[in-house]
Specification:
It is built from 6 helices and 25 strands. With 398 residues, the protein is α+β, with helices and mostly antiparallel strands. The strands form 6 sheets. Strands 1, 2, 3, 4, 5, 6, 7, 14, 18, 21, 24 and 25 form a 12-stranded antiparallel beta sheet that branches.
Length: 398
C-alpha cells in the first residue's frame, strides 16, 4: 500500500486541495495529510493531449463519500501549482473499515471539449488577429474556463495578424473552433492549455521561448547546465511518413495529388531521401487549389520526415530544477548524443527533408512531463518526453 511521510505538524512540500465541481474557482478542501504521496503522479502536456493525475487518499472520517467524479483537484509543490483539473474516476477501496480513494483526474483543458457553440450565424470577419479571435471565442462560449481563471492571454501569440472570414456552426466544441482558427492562421500551428490555466499557441516561426533547465548530453561529465539523464531513449518513427497525398476536397478543384516538391517546400524532398510514400487526405472544406495546397502543406510539414521522439528520467531536485527553472511541457530542449546522431545546437548531419530551407532538427519541444514524489515530497522524479508529431489542423473559412 502506498504511504505518505507528510503526516504530523511539519510543513508539507506537496499540497493537495479538492472541492465540488459546482463551486467556482479553485478547490479549497485540504486533504494533504491524507494523501499517499508515492501514489501521486502528475502529467503536464505541451500539446493538445489531456494531462492526467492519479492519486490515493485515506478517508477514515468518511468525509468524502459524496465524491462521485467531477470534483475539482489541485496539486501544489511548495506553493506553486502543478496540476488543476477534474476527477473523472473515483474508486473507493476498503482498507479495514475505511475507504482508500483511488482517483484519476483530467486537466482543466478538458473543458474545451465540454463547451459547445449552441447558436447559428456565428461569424468573424477578416482583418482581426488569430489571438483576438480565440479570445472572443473563449469569452463568448467558454465561460466555464473563464470561471476557472482563464483570463490571461500572454501565452497566446499572434500567428496571423489578419485572419480571413470564418464561420463557426452549431455543435462545434470550443476546442474544434479554436483548432479551426489556428488551422487557418498557420500551416504549423499548435496549442495546449496549462495548469494556470492559460492557452498557449505557437508555430515554427513563433515557438515558445522557454528553454529547458538543462541541456541533455549523453556522455560522462556533461558540464555546466547540462545533465546525463537516466533511461534515455530515442527513435525515428517512419510509420506515418508521407511524401505526398491525394487530397479529397469538396469538389474537383479542391482535389488532387500534392507532394512536398510540387508545393515548393524547401528541399531535399521526402521521396528523394527516403522513397515514395503516399496517402489519402480528406479536406471536406477545400474548394479551391489554394485551400487544397494549404491542408496538404500543413500535413507534409509534419509527415515528410520520420518523426523524432525521445524520453528520459531525472531524479532529485538538483536535476529537476536549475536556477529556479524546472522541467515543464512546452520548453525547448537541445540533446547531444553521438550514438543517436544528435548534435544539439550544431548542424544536424541529416538526412532531413527541408534541411536546405534552414529548418533545423533541434531544439526539440518537450511534450510531456510526468512527476512522482520521493522522500515525502521533498524530492521529485520526472519522466520527460520530447519530439513527436504535432496536431494537424485544417482551418475552414467562409
Amino acid at each position: 500500500m502506498p504511504t505518505t511521510n507528510q503526516q504530523g505538524g511539519t510543513a508539507t512540500p506537496v499540497t493537495v486541495l479538492i472541492g465540488p465541481g459546482s463551486a467556482a474557482g479553485a478547490p479549497s478542501i485540504d486533504i494533504t495529510r491524507r494523501v499517499a504521496i508515492d501514489s501521486l503522479r502528475i502529467e503536464e502536456t505541451g500539446n493538445h493531449d489531456a494531462a492526467n493525475l492519479d492519486i490515493e487518499f485515506l478517508d477514515k472520517a468518511l468525509a468524502y463519500t459524496t465524491i462521485r467524479g467531477e470534483w475539482k483537484v489541485m496539486v501544489q509543490h511548495w506553493g506553486t501549482t502543478m496540476f488543476r483539473g477534474f476527477i473523472r474516476s473515483a474508486r473507493p477501496e476498503l482498507r479495514a473499515i475505511y475507504p482508500a480513494w483511488n482517483a484519476s483526474a483530467v486537466d482543466i483543458g478538458s473543458l474545451l471539449d465540454r463547451c459547445v457553440i449552441k447558436v447559428t450565424g456565428v461569424k468573424r470577419t477578416n482583418g482581426e488577429s488569430d489571438k483576438a479571435r480565440i479570445q472572443w471565442l473563449v469569452n463568448t462560449f467558454g465561460q466555464p474556463l473563464v470561471a476557472e481563471g482563464l483570463t490571461g492571454w500572454g501565452r497566446v501569440q499572434v500567428l496571423n495578424a489578419a485572419m480571413p472570414n470564418q464561420s463557426f456552426p452549431p455543435k462545434l466544441t470550443l476546442r474544434q473552433a479554436i483548432e479551426r482558427v489556428l488551422g487557418a492562421s498557420s500551416d504549423t500551428s499548435d496549442y495546449y492549455v496549462d495548469y494556470v490555466p492559460r492557452i498557449h499557441t505557437l508555430d515554427d516561426d513563433n515557438p515558445e521561448p522557454e528553454a529547458a533547465p538543462f541541456a541533455v548530453r549523453i556522455q560522462p561529465n556533461p558540464g555546466a547546465n547540462s545533465i546525463a539523464p537516466e533511461d534515455f531513449t530515442f527513435e525515428w518513427d517512419s510509420s506515418a511518413r508521407r511524401s505526398g497525398y491525394y487530397v479529397q476536397g469538396k469538389n474537383a478543384t479542391g482535389s488532387g495529388w500534392v507532394t512536398d516538391q510540387t508545393l515548393n517546400l524547401p528541399g531535399p524532398w521526402s521521396a528523394d531521401l527516403y522513397g515514395a510514400s503516399e496517402d489519402y487526405l480528406s479536406a471536406p472544406d477545400a474548394d479551391t487549389v489554394a485551400k487544397r495546397n494549404r491542408v496538404a502543406r500543413a500535413a507534409l510539414r509534419d509527415t515528410r520526415n520520420p518523426v523524432p521522439r525521445g524520453s528520459f528520467r531525472v531524479t532529485g531536485e538538483s536535476q529537476v530544477v536549475n536556477a529556479g527553472v524546472r522541467w515543464q511541457a512546452g520548453q525547448l530542449l537541445y540533446v547531444w548524443s553521438v550514438p543517436h546522431g544528435l548534435n544539439g545546437s550544431g548542424t544536424d548531419p541529416g538526412p532531413w527533408a527541408g534541411k536546405s530551407g534552414g529548418r533545423q532538427l533541434q531544439p526539440f519541444r518537450i511534450i510531456r512531463v510526468t512527476t512522482s514524489f520521493l522522500a515525502g515530497g521533498h524530492e521529485r522524479s520526472m519522466e520527460i518526453e520530447f519530439g513527436g508529431r504535432r496536431l494537424i489542423m485544417y482551418g475552414g473559412a467562409g
